[in-house]
Structures are given as C-alpha cells and as structure tokens.
Specification:
Length: 331
Amino acid sequence: MGGGAAGGFGGGFGGGAGMPIAVITSRVAPQSFTDRFTALGTARANESIEVTARTTSVITRINFREGQRVRTGDVLVDLDNRQEWANLQLAEAQLKQAENQYKRSQTLAVSQAVSAADLDQLEANLLVARAQVRGAQARLDILSVRAPFAGTVGLRRVSLGDLVGPDTVITTLDDTSVIKLEFGIPENFVGDLRTGNTIVADSTVYPDRRFKGTVTSIDSRVDPVTRAVTVLATVPNDEGLLKPGMFLTVGLEKKRENVLLIPEEALVPREGRQYVFVVEDGKAMEREVVLGGRAPGLAEIRSGLESGVLLITEGTQRVRTGAPVQVAPGS
C-alpha cells in the first residue's frame, strides 16, 4: 500500500483522555487484482445411450464383449428374425412376379394387345411390390441391434435366449474419445468467458496431469438462486483416462486494473455491514464500504472509498468518529 502521512508521534499508543489516539495508516491506491475461482465440473461422455431393442423378440446371438470398442453400424445383438426373413423372401418373390408381368405387358402394349389402363394397373402393382419389399427389409433390420455411433460398450445385461423389448437395457454405449465437462461459473466471470476459450482442469485421480479443453457452450440464463451460469467444455480423451461421472476442478482467472484493495484488519464489521475509518483533518471519520472480491489478507472496496484517502489500518478498535488521532511515522 502507499505510505501514510507522516505526523508527530508522542505519548505512545492510546493516549489519555482528550489526547489524540495513535494509529497506523496507509494511503489507499488502485492496484491490479486477479479474481480467482475454482469450479467443480462433472465429466460426461460425448455421446451416451442405453442400448435397447426397438421390438420385442428373443436374443439369438450376442456379438460384443464387455468393454469392447465398436464402430458405427456394428451389430451388437441379433434377435429371432425367422418370420421377418420369410416375409422378405415372400415380398421379393411377389416383386419379381410383378416386374415380369409389367415387362411383358409393355411389349404387348406396343401392339395394343394390352390396354393402357391395364398397363397402368400393372405398374401400380409393381410399385406396391417394391414398397412391400422395403417394408419387409425394414422390419428385418430392426431385429439387428446396431451401434448408432462408435464407442465402448459397457456391461452386458442380457443373456442368449432372453426375451427383450424396448424397455430392456441390453448394455450401454459411450463415446469417450471426447469428454464433455459441465461446470458453473459466477455471473461476474461471464463477460470474460467466450466459446473457444481454453480451460485447464485437474483431477485428484491424476494429480500429475492437467487436462486442457475448449469452451463450446455457455448457458443463456443465470441461475437466480446460485447466480451461476452453466458452461460446457470439451476435453480430448485419446488416452481414455477420463471416465463419465468423474469430478474435475476448473481454475478460472480474471485480471482487473485500478482496483481499490485494503488490508482486512482495517474492516470494522457491525450489524452485517462493513465500515472503515479514514483520517480527515486529524480526526477519525467512519465510512460504510461495499466489498467485492477477496485475496489473502486483502479486501476489494467496490464503493465507499476513493483513491488517495488515508485509511486507518491499526487502532480501529480504539477510535470513534470525530476522535483526534496521531498517525505513526512511516505508516
């Protein structure tokens, strides 16, 4: 802090009745200040689902191992498809018949042996047959449970021969090649955080590692209770060290200039408010202040003080508003 005003000093601290009270002061001056905040974030998979069947049937084959990496489209489980396979074969046979009839009729239509109306009907039958094949193929496809994205399967929850349906969890599938880190920040940091900013996260599981990520999304609303904003960042996880559900700490800093900082011992709390004493014309004058951020041993003053005033830092318990004071030399 800036040096205090030099004044005469005699009689020791705490003079007698009517005598000035000896105090130590410092000159309030603006400084640079760094707000620091540590947020607790939760790791989430980039994509995560519970694998289920879209129809009710019996499992005839399991094509994955627990913890296995799978690719997009890999078949995880086959269900009993005998009826659907037979329906597809029937639809394909009917399609072939409809195609042959239409081709023959096209030849006969040249010589007008087949009317235009009959040809139109045969063409419609062909279109219906093709649609029936597509429908049969779709019903057959849903009996093969496939991975919708690349990832790692979890524990197997079913066995061969189980009757499963849309409510039955077969296994889980997580894409953890990238981890989504969700954390909250105080509203006063929102103006300094942008999508694309780099964040650094730490985990107690890996005390010697730091994980860098990129802010990808900032919530559009401030929580009215916590006064915090939810932030989403993506963290590369090529080594697979981070698991969904893990906790990580995110450290955020914001540097500000021209901040008024005073020693905490200068504060005089009373009835839920904060006061300080300043020296004016050789007398102690009380002022109410509004605090901002904190640093070890220091408090930010948002309002109530201005730069250059002489602040009493020691002796505040002995002074009262209007009491004469003596400033210690070099304070």
